Amino acid sequence: MRLGRPQTRGSSHFALFILDFANLSVQNERIQRGCRLLHASGTPKASFRMRLATTESGDDETREQLRCEAIRRSRFCRCNQDLRYEKYFLWEQEKEKMYKVVIVDDEPLIVEGLTRIVPWAKYGCKVVGKAMDGREGLKVIRQLRPDIVFTDIYMPHMDGLLMISALKSEWEDLQIAILTGYRDFELAQKALNLGVSRFILKPSNLKDLEEAVRFMTDRISRNAGEKDTGKGNKESADQAHSSDAPEEAEAETQASEEAEQSKEASTTEANNFLVKSALAYMTENYEKKLTLTEVADQMYVSQWHLSKLLNQYTKKTFLDILNDIRISEAKKLMEDPSLRVGEIAKMVGFSDVTHFSRVFKRLEGVPPAAYRNQMNT
């Protein structure tokens, strides 16, 4: 079954369809006055109305198949009433809020060009923020919380992949399109694994840009619809399990689970990338006066978010991880008999030798001097 494409009127988007329960045909139609209204659940960005015209219906199995397919394929909402006695139904989507877009690129001409050339209103979008470098971009994104981000992946003082993983880790539904002048297949693959929606090479044409915008707005609507239909799908599946339609229940459950698994996979990949990067940074800078805030800044995430991820993936706190790294390096340095315990403590980032000895004993079971004696015996 195919659903008609939304029609556009200025900044307001609406979609109107008639579904024929008898022959499964779908066609665009005008709204007919006098139709009975049926309310359906909405999403954070849209409200919906459903109108139904009552005529003779097809067989029960056909009606139920069409109803479930419409709900599953709908990007808008789930029906919260039984449609068994309706031959036709149609719905209208009325946008209440446009999707927010932020553009990040260190080339001013690219930023202004994207802002002007793309027909944003056509897709229910509006450019609300611009930035000329990655750090400024992160600040703008955190402040404005956009739905879509167009960004270069190579910018001064910014690791593009790390920035993407940070954004996807904190906001899994954020849609990101990469703009780059580098033909790097490996980089593109990594970016897509992290959850990037589109990887566009510069110079880009309007067709590619519009396709990316269309794809991302469709995905946003679909994600919103899936959240609304999640409960409805479960209820439908439960009803089907208790009736004579186990195959239908299984299909609905599988479709919902597959969509959720796909989203979780990209978020997990982003989280893994972040944690590995944070651990690598700590290993390279353990001798400094390292803090959670500094590491979080380097990872482009909040310290609270980084702390949560580290604990989730390592089952340890930031300080525990840092102490593990420092004591591990201290044990290597102790193989050099010319180095005193106090010197080793400072070399691995401890400003106080007493504190170093206390942490060392807690982790190794013996004080540093005793550990060194054991090494020599």
Give short descriptive properties of this protein:
16% strand, 3 domains, Arc Repressor Mutant, subunit A, 377 residues, 13 helices, Rossmann fold, three-stranded antiparallel sheet, alpha/beta, five-stranded parallel sheet, disordered N terminus
What does this structure look like?
The chain has 377 residues and is an alpha/beta fold. The protein folds into three domains: 1-96, no CATH class; 99-219, Rossmann fold (3-Layer(aba) Sandwich); 319-376, Arc Repressor Mutant, subunit A, CATH 1.10.10. Helix content is 51%, strand content 16%. It contains 13 helices and 14 strands. The strands form five sheets. Strands 9-8-10-13-14 form a five-stranded parallel beta sheet, sandwiched between helices. A three-stranded antiparallel beta sheet has the order 5-6-7, with no helix packed on it. It has a two-stranded antiparallel ribbon with strand order 1-2. Helix 4 (160-170) crosses helix 7, helix 7 crosses helix 9 (303-314) and helix 8 packs across helix 9. The longest helix is centred in the last third of the chain and has 39 residues, at 246-284. It is elongated, with a radius of gyration of 28 Å. 32% of the residues are buried.
